[in-house]
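Question (not urgent): is this output format expected?
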Amino acid sequence: MHGLGNDFVVVDEIKNQNLVNKNLSDLAKKICDRRFGIGADGLVLLLPSEKADFKMRIINSDGSEAEMCGNAIRCVARYYVEKYNPAKKQLEVETLAGIIKPEVLENNMVRVDMGRPILKPQEIPVAVEEEPVNIPLEVSGQKFFFTAVSMGNPHAVIFVDSLAKIELEKYGPLIETHPLFPRKTNVEFVEILSPKKVKVLVWERGAGATLACGTGASAVVVAGRILGHLQEDVEVVLPGGSLYITWKFGESVYMTGPAEIVFKGEYILI
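Got this back:
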């Protein structure tokens, strides 16, 4: 499945836990390899849950586990509704970032209550004492200013004059692994087109450059509103397409975007 080109191998483990004793890190690396495996940004598991309709686990293509993923949760929400309960459109999904609430809409669109953003440095986490807004950061001789936001996972949002000047493959991994971020970070470079529209390039922690990032798009709007750049409703244009984000101060962030099923098949465990 994919959400705007951010693609996942989705495995249903709700009724039969075939992978319970498997090394998921090694398995994700093999499955997500685009030449020797199926190819994906991540391996996503649906598991039984006592707290919600089901539990979602996300293993990135490098074998690390993510707390949350906005594109992945749209995918699993659509999958679950179509397979288990077509009449149930509003779900609760257990994640490492807490209970997330997606709603399956028409035309393969899914709206997700992403919860309230986390802005305290120690909870993001980011190793600064002050409010993590417009913090200077220098990598490879280039100075950027980032605003740190957590949407259950950490993000460094950087507003720039033009994305055309950004060498994502160069600066993305340097910022992701910078000592300021104890658990690494996702990185978003943002060009403002208007107060209601931005263009974004994403470097995802554990996956590299991706075509879209739901938590990243949410973090972008939060940072943009804090800095006074953006309004409540914003179209976030990513390489894979647009997500629609709404955030009122003090409330949950809402993200709306598509979820697509590409193909179904079998993978032989060796």
